Amino acid sequence: MAMTVLAAAQTDIGCVRGNNEDSFGGDAEHQIYVVCDGMGGVAGGEVASAIAVEEFLKAFGVAVTVGGSDAETSKSALFHAAIAANRAVYDRALREPHHRGMGATLVAAHVIGERLMVVNVGDSRAYLFREGEPTQLTLDHTFLSEQVRRGLMTQAMADESPMQSVITRAIGIEESVEPDLFGVDLEQGDLVLLASDGLTRYVADEEIAQMVSGSELAGPQELVERCEKLIELAKERGGADNITCILLQSAAA
Hints:
Elements (H helix, E strand, L loop, with lengths): L2 E10 L9 E6 L4 E8 L4 H24 L3 H25 L7 E10 L2 E7 L3 E6 L2 E4 L6 H7 L5 H6 L19 E6 L5 E5 L1 H4 L4 H8 L7 H17 L6 E10 L1
Antiparallel strand pairs: 1-10, 2-3, 3-4, 4-5, 5-8, 6-7, 6-9, 9-10
Helix pairs in contact: 1-2
């Protein structure tokens, strides 16, 4: 049974930043959605995330148009689109010395048939919510998360560390990058969240699940309102970073 998705997206500058370095985008025809969180200062983050979103969607669209519509094509298209985004940001920084060092995280989701395919670089996350239960689909590319996964640090130690912002992979920082790819089967009523760390640093997984989940399929405005509530909660708790989320709801096509 093929799935289609209803999508809603919201972004906010937060309570501290003077500009919004997050970018997001999507293509409803191809059922592909992406969130990027920029870094680099002096508008570099804004530039990097905008380039990453644009180039990712462009490269993905070309790949699936040429390759067809199946899970293997989706996996390849996501991988090569992330590589294209990385190259575009990296090349722009080479041409413009005042943007040297700029980069962005990237997380994207594609629905093809009954399958959800996800790609990520950095610490922006993808979650699946099924019957109110949250599952983080992506792995954070951060120093602390990698220390926890290797058993060198407990999660409690990581939560108290001042090194929360140390990212080990990002779009555009180096000439090449290694994206991670994930896949999961979708069921009707599943919810998928793509979010920058401006949300996930302030709102726990279980809290997010409670705020986005419902007993019935939501309409477009309700999905927008759920995104807004998540952002408002992050802001109430400090909101020191930009906050962006895309919420997808699956239904039988």
